[in-house]
Every structure is written in structure tokens, then in C-alpha cells.
Amino acid sequence: MHALQYEVTLPADYDMAVIRDRVDRLGHLLDDWDGLGVKAYLVRERGRYGSPVNQYAPFYLWDTFDGMNRFLWGGGFQGLADDFGRPSVQQWTGLAYERGSASPASAAFAVRHRQPVPEGVELGTFMQEAVAQALRLAGEDGAVLAAAAVDARHWELVRFSVWDHESPKAEGDLFQVRHLSAPGLDRLPRGRQW
């Protein structure tokens, strides 16, 4: 599994209906993308649910590198770059993934928590704790899925979870899920990834 996210932060007075309309029109295009486990079309609106910014920030869990690369270099990503400029693409190597009991069709909110991997920690123990946290979150009421991944270049851990309600039992940045494409949800490897 491989996690990927980019963020398009928009002006404070930006009409977020433009982003909602974009997702409504185009979101279905990845509903059957080969190699994609899940794409959560994430939106934060300034002043709603505690968000300080307007932002469009899709989050992906890929089950193949080929699918991810076809998206990035084969045209899927180019439309966003043409419309909003080319944002930095953050990538993390998967540590853990687990399905929750809530239906993917009920996805309404997502939480992303990023944190540095502290200097001096025993890496195996730290990563195993991240795995345990992802598996615990997936077991909570209303969880659709939970994942953990790490960027070993910058030593950053990301925890990502999707929920069917606005008060999830996860800490981090809260996003509204505008659409969830999940063509490979059942192909994503469950549990610890090593």
C-alpha cells in the first residue's frame, strides 16, 4: 500500500461551491481506476468544523504503484495541475490498513494526523504503535477505514481515517468527504504491512 495526498489551499473568500461542483462532476472518473484502493475527495471550508482554511486535499491509498503512476503521469493528475497549478504531492509508504464496520457509501468525514518520527525512538516499536492505533481506530463505531503510513525521507508519520459522522474518535485535521472512490478497497492489504 502507498498513501498519497496533495493540498490546494484556496483564498479565504474563495467560493467553495466551485470545488464541490468539480467533485460532483468529476469524482466518478476514478470509481473504477485500476490500482486505486481508495480516493477520498476531501474538503475543508474556512469556519466550518473548525477549519482555518479553504482547502481541497484528496487522499489516496494505492494498491499498486502502476495505478498511482498512471494517475500521476498518465493524465489523471494533469487536470488538477491545469486548473490550480501543480501542488506538491506528499507520499508515504504503508504501515497498516484496516476496514471499519461502516459502509464506504456512508463516508462523510476524514481525519488526517501528521507527526514527525522523533529522533532517538526505536523505529520498530514506534511503527508498531502506529499500526496498533490504526487498527484500534478501524474498530471504533462509525469507522469506514483507518491507515497509517510513513515518509522515511522526512521521517513523518501520517494516520488517516474515514468516518460516517462528524465526531470521530481520531485526532488531527478534520475534512469533509465529498466523494469516495473505492475500486480496490477489498484489494488493499489489511493489517500490518511488514
Structural descriptors:
194 residues, alpha+beta, Alpha-Beta Plaits, 4 helices, 22% helix
Estimate the mean pLDDT confidence. 97
SS elements, strand count: 11
Lateral arrangement of strands in the main beta sheet:
1-5-3-10-7-9-8-6
Helix/strand/pairing category: alpha+beta
Q: What can be said about the biggest beta sheet? A: 8 strands, antiparallel, barrel
Chain oligomer state: single chain
Overall 3D form? globular
**CATH overall fold name:** Alpha-Beta Plaits
> Helical amount among residues, as a percent range?
10-25%
- Spans of at least 5 consecutive residues whose pLDDT stays below 50 are none
Compute the CA-based radius of gyration: 16 Å
Q: How many individual helices? A: 4
CATH class assignment: Alpha Beta
Distance between the termini: 11 Å
The SSE string, one letter per element, is EEHEEEHHEEHEEEE
Give the second-level CATH assignment, the architecture. 2-Layer Sandwich
Provide the β-strand percentage band: 35-45%
How many domains in all? Answer: 1
Describe the fold and architecture.
By secondary structure, the chain is an alpha+beta fold. The protein has a single domain (2-192), classed as Alpha-Beta Plaits. The protein is 22% helix and 37% strand. It has four helices and eleven strands, in the order ββαβββααββαββββ. Strands 1-5-3-10-7-9-8-6 form an eight-stranded antiparallel beta barrel. The radius of gyration is 16 Å and the shape is globular. 37% of the residues are buried. The model has no long low-confidence stretch (mean pLDDT 97).
